[in-house]
Amino acid sequence: MPERKFTVKPSLTTRGLSPENQETPLEYLQTDAMNNYQFFRRNHFDYPSLNQANYRLLFGGLIKRPLSLSLQDLSRFPAKTLKVALECAGNKRGHFEPKTYGEQWGKGAISQGYWRGVPLAHILDLTGFSSHAAEVVVKGYDHGVRKGSEKNETYARSLPLEKALHLDTIIAFEYNGQPLSYKHGYPLRLIVPGWYAMASVKWVRQISVIGTSFKGAFQTNDYMYYPSQETDEGAFPVTELNVNSTIQTPLDMEVLDGSRHCIRGIAWTGKGMITRVEISLDNGESWLDADFHPPASSYEWVSWQYVWNPGKSGEYSILSRATDSIGRTQVRKAFWNRKGYGYNAMDHVRVFVY
């Protein structure tokens, strides 16, 4: 009999069961367009129950023409496909010092692929929104009791009108050429390129135009940077992705032989493009340029590599840092904030070469 070969899929790393929160083991990834199985999962509540047969997307608020769109209605609008990386605002939270409360994400609460959908602006233009419009509120079907509160709440976020009208802010119905998976927002989710993924609301139910600032709990309590441990002084909202990089291989505390090795990883930013990725093999004393191909768009990560010949045995402290086209470079210590958002310190692994 011929030998049977099995393909072992890496399991996601569980950070929470109810609601389900799981991250991707990035060191296993050999592609930059990840399938549904590999895509990280971030939920605030248990998965919602949907009546797919009667699904409608509602538009209301400060508009002249309220809309109720079926999936078939939406399919008649011009669509576009964007390659976008989505990163949880709490990605790498487990690396903060001192520690912050919340899911202790490692490096894997980030994934990317090809999203296809209708620009939100196309539909908002049909509604005849008011000249007093300030923000667009997007409400999902997911709801429950928010952590730290006794109230039953629905997940909802708002975007400034300018961001909502950006032609790359889309209502997505496909991922990698297939309908969205249920666990990633089927049948519709918002995709907001360049912003942390809390803005890309899943299981979209209703979109409303308002003339004031939205005060929902996931807008003004969660997803705020709180620089102080004791007070809310100096707080400001989480929006655009910070410039960042991750070392995929070698792994932290890995033992290597003295032959040639490829240090590889990814780098990304929420504004501009990645223009440089550097590697240090001596804990930041000196820096070397890594190789990468510029991305086709500013919304995707770049895959980088550096071929390393250790030369001698011993312990090595490897760092990576990325720079983007607006001049932002990763620093040694991340900006600490009480809820642990936006971690983007230089990545760091230690290895021993024998």
TrEMBL record:
Residues covered by the Moybdenum cofactor oxidoreductase dimerisation domain: 238-349
Source species, domain of life: Bacteria
Cofactor: Mo-molybdopterin
Example GO biological process: sulfur compound metabolic process
Ranges where the record places region Disordered: 1-23
Xref: CDD domains: SO_family_Moco_dimer
Keyword vocabulary terms for this entry: Metal-binding, Molybdenum, Oxidoreductase
Domain (Oxidoreductase molybdopterin-binding): residue spans on this chain: 44-216
GO molecular function annotations of the record: heme binding; molybdenum ion binding; molybdopterin cofactor binding; sulfite oxidase activity
Entry protein name: Sulfite oxidase
